[in-house]
Amino acid sequence: MRRILVIKHGALGDFVLATGPFMAIRAHHLGDHVTLLTTPPYVGMARASRLFDQVWTDTRPRIWQVGAWVELLQRLREHRFDRVYDLQTSKRSGLYYRFFPRPKPEWSGIVRGATLRHDTPERTHMHTVDRQAEQLRIAGIEHVPHPDISWFKADLTHLALPKEFALLVPGGSAHRPAKRWPAPNYAALTQRFAQLGIGTVAIGGKGDEAATAAVAAAGGMDLCSRTSLEEVAELARRAVVAVGNDTGPMHLAATAGSRSVVLFSNASDPALCAPRGQAVRILRRPALKDLTVEEVAEMALKVRRP
Fold first, then answer.
1. In CATH, what number does 165-303 get?
2. Which residues neighbour 134 within 8 Å (Cβ) at sequence distance 6 or greater?
3. What is the CATH architecture assignment of 3-138?
4. Where in the chain is the domain with CATH 3.40.50.2000?
5. How far is C-alpha 229 from the chain's CA centre?
6. Phi and psi torsions of 57, nearest 5°
7. pTM: predicted TM-score of the whole model, two decimal places
8. What is the pLDDT of residues 154-169, one digit of tens each?
């Protein structure tokens, strides 16, 4: 039995897109012991997948947190991994490579010195899914399935949901406001759906309260900071359509199987990071304020579940 380490910290969208590589690695190492090193928000999700024999929490210590660094270093060294799949490919995960004594484990990633180095010049111009699939091919894993969270389930009986509803994700990263379609537009979309007998349910986290409140003021349901990741996935499965900004929960929605409309500005490139799913449509404008409610409503109604 070989000891395998997979490194994937996040963010949410990236973690969801990595579920395909997770499954590929597990299938390739059926008789081996596979450990995932990830950050606290994704520990529960990783354990629920049952793709890993162990899930370790990486607190990503700051440079001055010497004790935490020593603990992490000892943990990585003592486990004596035979192979490491660095799906994070960050400066931090590259630093972890330096922690291992010689001889180094087989290393799939981009760090200099890696035995299975993914050094294709085009990698920075590839979508995350395609880039990681190519990385794993170099490591001898030919088949990488699509992202899949069918195992991620939740009970929603405590929520008084509309019989038919659209899931709205009007928030996003607080430090990237250019990725947000204006909250009043989500309110107007809510009213448009209501005219057709379709309710709306808005989700979000800290910093999204104003956007979800605008939906509530227009007659929608506000679940900001009241849903777990599992519940978001379940809401997406039940929704007739999901509409939202380029943010993590839209990856959950699309991968869960929801018909989805994702709104992009020039602040991010869908060719590199768009959600992947059975029915995902992208609407993009250089500035999202120029994307009209009519355009979004028309696309949402076109792709919604019958």
1. 3.40.50.2000
2. 118, 120, 123, 126
3. 3-Layer(aba) Sandwich (3.40)
4. 3-138, 165-303
5. 10
6. -95, 125
7. 0.94
8. 999 999 999 999 999 9
